[in-house]
């Protein structure tokens, strides 16, 4: 009897499980992350249950488990969050954005995140903290302190595109703005866990010139910004149901 071929998403899960082990004393090597990224490059919308109808802005409340008869104005559509796998060492999830939807500037403390744009286009703006930390008291804004960060990414990503951010590089603090209807498959390792010090914090960025700073003749104001932590914003987001191939964990 011929053994049934494993699905692409099962193979991706297995590689994640191999890469992010609970007994590891060190983060995965850059070679291991690049291997995972290369495999993620091969994953397409159909591999996670996304059909052509999911790419339409007028799809109602998203393609996962919601009746296609539901129609709402584009401006009123939520981002659809779909959990593919949630575990101790990594999380796999999908975000489906209607046009112009935004996930504001937020961080991934101590985490590595791989993101694959499955369809559509979105603008990514991302920062990494300047080290050693440069923190100032803020009198010009309502925030008590601001911290200096360097711009790492400011571009449009179009499917198929895979990106990686690391705990200290690659744009660990980022925001997404959908240019078209789009979907992103994320792998977060380790996942958010507030008790372990991995809380999702949100930020507002201010131009470097907003606050006084020692002049550095080798730096460009456009490359830096002051980030102020803000209260978690009210993001219009709903949960969807994963409809792709079953994953054996």
Automatic annotation (TrEMBL):
EC number: 1.13.11.20
Keywords: Iron, Metal-binding, Oxidoreductase
Required cofactor names: Fe(2+)
Known catalytic reactions: L-cysteine + O2 = 3-sulfino-L-alanine + H(+)
Entries under Pfam families matching the protein: PCO_ADO
Domain of life according to the entry: Eukaryota
Enzyme class: oxidoreductase
Keyword Metal-binding: yes
InterPro entries on file: PCO/ADO, RmlC-like_jellyroll, RmlC_Cupin_sf
Residues forming coiled coils: none
PANTHER family given in the database record: 2-AMINOETHANETHIOL DIOXYGENASE, PLANT CYSTEINE OXIDASE 3
Family: Belongs to the cysteine dioxygenase family.
Protein name in UniProt: cysteine dioxygenase
Organism whose genome encodes this protein: Penstemon davidsonii
């Amino acid at each position: 009897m011929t053994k049934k071929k494993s699905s692409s998403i099962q193979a991706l899960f297995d590689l994640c499980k191999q890469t992010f082990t609970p007994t590891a004393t060190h983060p995965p090597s850059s070679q291991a992350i690049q291997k995972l990224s290369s495999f993620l490059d091969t994953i397409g919308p159909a591999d996670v249950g996304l059909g052509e109808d999911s790419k339409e802005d007028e799809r109602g409340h998203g393609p996962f488990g919601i009746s296609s008869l539901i129609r709402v104005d584009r401006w009123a559509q939520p981002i659809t969050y779909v959990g593919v796998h949630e575990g101790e060492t990594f999380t796999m999830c999908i975000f489906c954005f209607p046009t112009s939807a935004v996930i504001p500037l937020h961080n991934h403390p101590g985490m590595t995140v791989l993101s694959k744009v499955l369809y559509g286009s979105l603008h990514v703006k991302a920062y990494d903290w300047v080290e050693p930390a440069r923190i100032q008291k803020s009198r010009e804004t309502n925030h008590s302190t601001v911290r200096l960060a360097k711009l790492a990414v400011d571009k449009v990503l179009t499917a198929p595109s895979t990106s990686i951010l690391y705990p200290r590089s690659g744009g660990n603090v980022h925001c997404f703005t959908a240019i078209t209807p789009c979907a992103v498959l994320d792998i977060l390792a380790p996942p958010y866990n507030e008790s372990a010090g991995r809380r999702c914090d949100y930020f507002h960025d201010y131009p470097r010139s907003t606050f006084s700073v020692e002049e550095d003749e080798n730096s460009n104001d456009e490359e830096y910004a002051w980030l102020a932590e803000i209260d978690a914003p009210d993001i219009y987001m709903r949960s969807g149901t994963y409809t792709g191939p079953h994953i054996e964990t």
